[in-house]
Structures are given as C-alpha cells and as structure tokens.
C-alpha cells in the first residue's frame, strides 16, 4: 500500500466536527452549538422514523449547513456591518415576510454614519432584498461544493442546497417547501433554532419557538413530535457531551481518511476559511506550501514537513470567530478590535484540541503569531519555548501576509518583505534560521540547501528528538526501522556535532533550539 493511501488515524466525521466549531463562532453562538443541534435532530429522528441510511447524511448536513456563510460574509458585512452579530441575532426572528424586512432594516449599515445607513435601507427596500437572496443562494452552492470536495455524495450535497428553504415555500430558493425538503434537513432546521432557545431560556422557550414557527418555517408533524418529547430530545445543555465517543458509536460515521484524503480535506478547509476575507484568498494554501518548502530546505524530517504543511492549512481557522468588519477594516484597529483579533490563534487551538491527530496539528497551527521576544500571541511564548516547526510557520505566515494586499495597505514587494523579515530577526521577533529557510524557499536567497542545527541530517534530527524524549537505543531502532548498531552510530555523530557528551546535554541542545514538539509524547 502506498504511504498516501494509509489510514491517517482520523475519521472524516471528527474533522468535520472540528470545523463545525469554527462555524459556531461565525454564527455568534458558543462552540458546540451545531453538534448539539445534530444530537437533538438525531434524537428526534429516532422518534419520527428516520431511516438508518439517513443518519450519516443528517450528521453531515448539520455540521456543514453553515459552512456557506463564508461565501456570503463580504455581502453580509457590506449590508449589515458585523456579520457575526447579524447572524447571532437572526435566530430570534422568523426570517420571512415583514419580520425579516424589519430585522434587516434594524441592522442595515450597523456601525456606519446615519446617512450611509439611510441609503442602504432605501436600496434594500427598492430591490426587495435581492442581494441578500443571492447571498443565500451562494451560501447553499458553496456548502454543497465543500461537501463534494471532502468526498460526500449527493445524498448530502443536494439537501444542503435547501438549507434556507421553509416548509411554507417562502424561503430560498423560492417555491421549494413541504416534503420536497429532505427529512434530515427538516430535522436540522428545527434543531438549529430550538437549540439556541433551549440553551438560553430552557425547554419551554424551545417548545414555544417551535410552535410559533409551525407550518411556516418548520414541518408541522416534526413540531408536534418534538413538543411531545422535548425533554427527551433536548437533554441537558449544561452537560458536556463527549462528541468523539458519540461519533465513534454511530456506525454511519466510521469512514477513516487516508493520508491523501486528509490532505485534500485540509486543503478544502483552508480554501473555505480564506473566503471570509477577499484579500486573504489563497493565503492558507500559500503559507502551507511555503512552510513545507522551508522545512525541507532546513533539513527537517519528512514527518515534520508534513505536519508543518497541514498545520499551516489550518492556522487561520480561528478567523471564523472574527467579524469581517475587523478583518477588512481599512484603517487601524482599535485596542478592543486588536484584542479580539488576537483571539483567533486561541480559537484555532481550541477547535483542534481533539482528537490527538488534530491536536498535534493545532499545537503547531496556533503558533503562527508567536514571536521570539514574547510579543506575539496567543500564549506570548518566547525563545526556545517556540518549537522549530512554530518558528518556520510564523516566518512563512509573515512573509506570505506581507506580500498579499490587505484592506489597510497594499502588498509589499518581495524585496520589501525580505527587508521586513530581516528586521524582525534583528529585533529578536523571528528566528534567523527559520527566516533564512523561508526566504530561500521563496526564491529570495540563493544559499546552499541547509541542514539542521549543527549540521545534523534529517535522520539525525529524528534520532535526537527520540533520545531527548527518553528513548533507548533499542527504542530508537524500533521506531525508525533501523538496527540498534545504526542507531548507536547516529547518536555518536549527534554528540560530536552538537558538542554533547550525555543524553542530558543533547536534550538541552534540542530544547534550546525548539526541536521538541512537547504535545506529541513518545510512544515507547
């Protein structure tokens, strides 16, 4: 079996669950809103005869339904300012007819001067909100495209295009309603709303909103069934569900990604994440390619090159929790806006905290904005506390961002970006070796291909990391598929090159150069 076809150790459902946490923040909801809504929908499905072969599609519809909001974010922000606040408030309104118009008029031009708000409101009324309708259609098409890219079939993709439909046929696209909407989608439409009301105000509020929208937004039969068993299907919102256990127990969610499929899925997540801001299109993929080339140039082990690339694809996933009005602000950010922006690195780590395959990537991805002098975020790490993979990612991200346009500045030339990075090295913010590797990978340096610190080869780096974590010669040999004698030879060469005389001094060498990924313990 080719290496790229091997099991990655990650279920598709687990990766999508992590991405759904980003969607929660983009909706103005706490993390795990969407997962709770899926659980409510699944429980209600048990009461209304949801077929076994519909359980998998229900999960993926629930966790992906809001992905398309990244596509209409620029449109929503243009009309309503803070797109996250707008979506969060929209849960309180039956989004059709006069209530919808009143809601949009109350939010139009939020944060803008009064005259600008008046003009937008007049345009909204004159056009009948056609721009908003187009945004909803784009949302649905984008969501279906995401489902396709991660390998899901038409049983998921087609219903996803009906997310904004309504039982009464007054949604988007118009004229689609009733039982033309797939049962799993009807279940999620109800669960998505009642979860918010239940969490905020309790079971009675959830039942009330379901009854108020019965026959308009929601399937009357589902509402009746829900109201009869609301206590059973809603559960306790204060109880922390173990989503990974629930996923592991659902037969329809057991597809495990191959290494190739994982890379393709991460690329899809990266591309969709970058859609939140027009100026960031292609940023994550560009950082990933640059960081991987830089890691190879620096002589890092193959496994680390793969990990750095994958982490780079995910490093901006936390931006889903930042309003477009901040991401695309043409001027300087206020202090509060800057603080909110700095939170996205924390969000990234939080979203990728489980399972272990993602946690290892999240630990690297969250380091993209750390700086050697401690001025970065979100942890404010400094010096050796930032591992080598994090230093490479930070340098690659900085270079790529500088050479891309932003709403508050034009793109820098490669020469200007090189000078900026060199300045950051002198100031102690970025690591010299990492910057050298990134600039070489970007074609801005013609130096020879580098080896690791002290001239260590990629294999010697692997051995050093293993012995620094306590591996014996036998364990090194077993882990790397080499003989114990060969492992001993590598260790002798490491001692000579690093000036170490014991494992302790070799470990200190590794620590001082950020070579140890402390969140990935050795499996002896």
Structural overview:
The chain is mainly α and 524 residues long. 61% of the residues lie in helices and 2% in strands. It is built from 27 helices and 2 strands. It has helices spanning 12-26, 33-48, 55-64, 69-80, 83-90, 97-107, 114-127, 130-149, 154-160, 183-201, 203-212, 220-228, 230-234, 243-249, 259-274, 283-297, 302-314, 324-327, 335-351, 356-365, 388-402, 414-426, 432-441, 458-468, 473-480, 484-498, 503-512, and strands at residues 7-11, 256-258. The chain has a two-stranded antiparallel ribbon. Helix 3 crosses helix 10 and helix 16 (283-297) crosses helix 21 (388-402). 47% of the residues are buried. Residues 518-524 have low confidence and may be disordered.
Q: What fraction strand?
A: under 5%
Q: Could you describe the largest sheet, including whether it forms a barrel?
A: 2 strands, antiparallel
In which range does the helix fraction lie?
Answer: 55-70%
Strand order, sheet with most strands: 1-2
**Overall number of strands:** 2
Rg from Cα: 25 Å
Q: What's the overall geometry?
A: globular
H/E series, N to C?
EHHHHHHHHHHHHHHEHHHHHHHHHHHHH
Distance between the termini: 25 Å
Overall average pLDDT: 92
Q: What's the helix count?
A: 27
Structural class: mainly alpha
Stretches with pLDDT under 50, minimum 5 residues: 518-524
Main features:
524 residues, mainly alpha, two-stranded antiparallel sheet, 27 helices, 2% strand, globular
